[in-house]
């Protein structure tokens, strides 16, 4: 069974300063509130006996995984393909304005290239494909917690976007 956990609330107070410019924003840590959200999440009885914790490589998810690991006594494995949605699927850094416009377009189109015209931003189908490719490697584990991002969870949960620290159980039939 997979338990997808959206990272806790993030402290973006350093955004667009120092190393937190551009892609560096993904180095932003959890806020104090976010760390507490995850400590509370770790108490959820569904996570008892977790075999393994998978994590996105972004700091907010890694901190989430670290808190879960401490509380649940489970090993962490970082999977780079559990990263957040890409405003440009060609791995080209976009300015905040372009990324925000891409996100608004993504949201308006329900995460799909609704008009059949492909865009630079990553659609739900591409996110779902990379998420399932990762999870398939861990199907043999009894219980896996996955510390990741709301949009990647949305890609495998029929458009549902969880709150920070929320657990979403992944239907095991997803691999069929």
From TrEMBL:
<dbReference type="Pfam" id="PF00300">
    <property type="entry name" value="His_Phos_1"/>
</dbReference>
<dbReference type="GO" id="GO:0005737">
    <property type="term" value="C:cytoplasm"/>
</dbReference>
<dbReference type="InterPro" id="IPR013078">
    <property type="entry name" value="His_Pase_superF_clade-1"/>
</dbReference>
<protein>
    <submittedName>
        <fullName>Histidine phosphatase family protein</fullName>
    </submittedName>
</protein>
<dbReference type="GO" id="GO:0016791">
    <property type="term" value="F:phosphatase activity"/>
</dbReference>
<dbReference type="InterPro" id="IPR029033">
    <property type="entry name" value="His_PPase_superfam"/>
</dbReference>
<dbReference type="InterPro" id="IPR050275">
    <property type="entry name" value="PGM_Phosphatase"/>
</dbReference>
């Amino acid at each position: 069974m997979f338990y997808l956990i959206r990272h806790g609330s993030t402290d973006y107070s350093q955004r667009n300063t120092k190393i937190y410019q551009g892609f560096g924003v993904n180095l932003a840590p959890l806020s104090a509130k976010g760390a507490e959200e995850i400590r509370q999440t770790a108490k959820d009885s569904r996570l008892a006996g977790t075999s393994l914790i998978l994590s996105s490589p972004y700091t907010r998810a890694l901190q989430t995984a670290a808190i879960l690991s401490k509380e649940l006594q489970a090993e962490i494995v970082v999977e780079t393909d559990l990263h957040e949605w890409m405003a440009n699927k060609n791995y080209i850094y976009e300015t905040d304005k372009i990324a925000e416009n891409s996100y608004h377009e993504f949201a308006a189109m329900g995460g799909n290239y609704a008009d059949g015209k492909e865009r630079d931003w990553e659609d739900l189908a591409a996110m779902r494909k990379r998420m399932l490719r990762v999870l398939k490697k861990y199907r043999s584990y009894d219980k896996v917690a996955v510390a990741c991002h709301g949009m990647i969870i949305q890609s495998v949960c029929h458009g549902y976007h969880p709150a920070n620290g929320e657990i979403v159980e992944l239907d095991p039939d997803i691999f069929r």
